[in-house]
Amino acid sequence: MKPAIDMRKVERKLGDRQMAFDFSRPRGSITAILGPSGSGKSTLLNLIAGFLAPDRGQVLIDGTDVSHLPPGERGVSMVFQDNNLFAHLDIATNIGLGLDPALKLDGTQKDRVAASLERVGLAGYEKRLPGTLSGGERQRVALARAFARARPVLLLDEPFDGLGPGLAADMISLMLEIRADVDATVMMVTHDPREAESAADQVLFIDQGRIAADGPMSGFFERSDLPALSAYLRGRPEA
Ligand SMILES: Nc1ncnc2c1ncn2[C@@H]1O[C@H](COP(=O)(O)OP(=O)(O)OP(=O)(O)O)[C@@H](O)[C@H]1O
C-alpha cells in the first residue's frame, strides 16, 4: 500500500536554518513530532500542509505528488497553535468555512457543524464570536473545524496546549475517535511526553532541522542512544 504521507528528500531553508526531512507514514498512523524549540517541527507540518514550499524534494499524499498544490487541494486539515479563527465571523461560520469556502452548506453539512461542536463540548455556541470565548474554547472550535472536515491527513500543532490535563485527555480521545472514523493519518507536534505516549504510536524526533529519530513511540523515552533526546528531556540545549 502507498504511504499516506511520503516526504522524499524534502529540503527547505528558513533564515539561516537548513531543514531536511525524509520519511513516510502509513495510513491510520499517529505520529508525535517532538524536539527542541526552533528545531523545525512547525516547519515540517507547514511543508506537508502546503503553507511552505520545498526548495527541493517532493511531498506525496496517498501516492500523489502534491508539492505544487495549494493547501486546500491536498486533503489535509491543520490546527495551528493560535487556532486562526476569523474574529468577525461567528463560530458556526468559522467551522462552515472549513466545509465549503463559499458557505453554501447543505443540510448534512449544517448537521456536521452542529455535531462537531457537540463533540467538543460546545453545543449551542454557534452564534458566538471567537472573541467572546476563552482560549481553550477557541482551541476546541479549531479542533471541531478540523474534525468536521474529516480530511485524510490531520496535522496538529500543539493543539491541546492550555486546555488543562482533563480536557486535553478528552480531546485526545476525541481525536482518536475521529481518526478511526475516517482512517485519517495524524501528525501532532507536542511538548508533552505523556500526551505523546497516550496519543501516538510513532515518533519523529527533530533536532536542528533534521530527523534525529524515526520509530515506534513505545519505549522511545527510555532510549539512551540519542544525546539530543537526553538534552531535550533535561530541558537544556545539547552541549
Ligand atoms: N519565516 C521565517 N524566516 C526565517 N526563519 C524562520 C521562519 N520561520 C521559522 N524560522 C526559523 O526556522 C527554525 C524552525 O522553526 P519552527 O517554527 O519550525 O520550529 P519549532 O520546532 O516548531 O519550534 P517551537 O517548538 O518553538 O514552536 C527556527 O530557527 C525559526 O526561527
From TrEMBL:
PROSITE patterns: ABC_TRANSPORTER_1, ABC_TRANSPORTER_2. The keyword Protein transport does not apply. SUPFAM superfamilies: P-loop containing nucleoside triphosphate hydrolases. Signal peptide: none annotated. It comes from the Bacteria. InterPro entries: AAA+_ATPase, ABC_SmlMolc_Importer, ABC_transporter-like_ATP-bd, ABC_transporter-like_CS, P-loop_NTPase. SMART domains: AAA. GO terms for molecular function: ATP binding; ATP hydrolysis activity. Residues 2-233 form the ABC transporter domain. Keywords: ATP-binding, Cell inner membrane, Cell membrane, Membrane, Nucleotide-binding, Translocase, Transport. Belongs to the ABC transporter superfamily. This is ATP-binding cassette domain-containing protein.
